[in-house]
Amino acid sequence: MEKSDRIGMIASGICAVHCLSMPALAAVVSATEYAAIHNPYIDVAFLLIALIVGPITIWQGYRRHHSAAPAIVFAVGFLLVAFGIASHMIHHDDPQPHSHLSWTAVGGLVLVMYHLFNAKLTRKACCDKLICTHQPETLPNSGG
């Protein structure tokens, strides 16, 4: 798996956990404390990381597996996260402040799936060649 896919997967996973934990946190703390804890700039930071890492991994993967399918999955996840952030910023005074987190959490999970899908296609494209550059210990069923 490419290092950039690992970075993207970790960042997307952290984003999804962050979004999934916010409604539980909102139920435990007061609205004032929740507003202080949930900073929309954190969401924007996750989106910017996806905007940087995503195209890099799309390009690296496409050069090896020549499939546009991972790019489509990335676009769906990215748009879900962006929609969730935008809806939060537009409706920031909504009495249900955590409703946007569903969009961002699902988007974060889709981005994790994108990185797994991209890595799988990249590995398959490499290992289907006559000469594979993977180390023997990383190949499935290589013994040992």
Q: Any descriptors?
A:
144 residues; mainly alpha; 76% helix; elongated
Short description:
The protein is built from 5 helices and no strands. With 144 residues, it is mostly helical.
Written description of the protein model:
With 144 residues, the protein is an all-alpha fold. It has one domain (3-128). It has helices spanning 3-28, 31-37, 40-65, 69-90, 100-127. α1 runs antiparallel to α3, α1 (3-28) runs antiparallel to α5 and α4 (69-90) runs antiparallel to α5 (100-127). The longest helix is centred in the C-terminal third of the chain and has 28 residues, at 100-127. The radius of gyration is 18 Å and the shape is elongated. The two termini are 21 Å apart. The model has no long low-confidence stretch (mean pLDDT 77).
